[in-house]
Amino acid sequence: MYKVRLWSVRHSRFMERLYNTANPGILLVLKGVTKIFGKRLDRPITAMEAGVKGFLFDCQMCGDCALSKTGMSCPMNCPKTLRNGPCGGVRANGMCEVKPDMNCVWVLAWDGASRMKNGDAIQNNEFAVDHREKGTSTWLKLARDEKTTDE
Ligand code: SF4
């Protein structure tokens, strides 16, 4: 939801703290669940991730989450799916060149990153999106120690 997405960026420091506090426990549970059930619960876990992150960040389930490195602003909402914005077309008022009614996702990202303790991580975002991962779960990749951007 757009309004909630903006709220999450404005409160990126709080989201960062929440993530750092909750993540170790959630990861431990997911590691246990994936060990016991293998891939049998992948679909509900992926749906849970899509639901929670969809509400908070308008997550597009790219399969390679970068939220902690983009100021809690999901870069997949950028019409150009840039991973190192903003583009040269961003408007002077911070709105998107392609969607003029939408705040530039990357202007939001740099703003959100400026509020975070580990916000400098945004400087290291020079990677392309692997669109083959779309629809897959970053949570499950982290639980299975598979390489992701958000490490
Ligand atoms: S203005 Fe921002 S959101 Fe729009 S295409 Fe450029 S980088 Fe993406």
3D architecture notes:
The structure is a single chain. The chain has 151 residues and is an all-alpha fold. It has one domain. It is built from five helices and no strands. The two termini are 25 Å apart. Bound molecules: iron/sulfur cluster (SF4). The site of iron/sulfur cluster has 15 residues, from helix 4.
Please summarize the sheet with the most strands: none
Total domain units: 1
**Number of contiguous helices:** 5
> What is the 3D form?
globular
**What's the β-strand tally?**
0
Q: Structural class per helix/strand content? A: mainly alpha
Mean pLDDT: 93
- Helix fraction bin: 40-55%
State the distance separating the first and last CA atoms. Answer: 25 Å
Low-confidence parts lasting 5 or more residues at pLDDT below 50? none
- Write down the Rg: 15 Å
Task: Provide keyphrases for this structure.
single chain; mainly alpha; 0% strand; binds iron/sulfur cluster
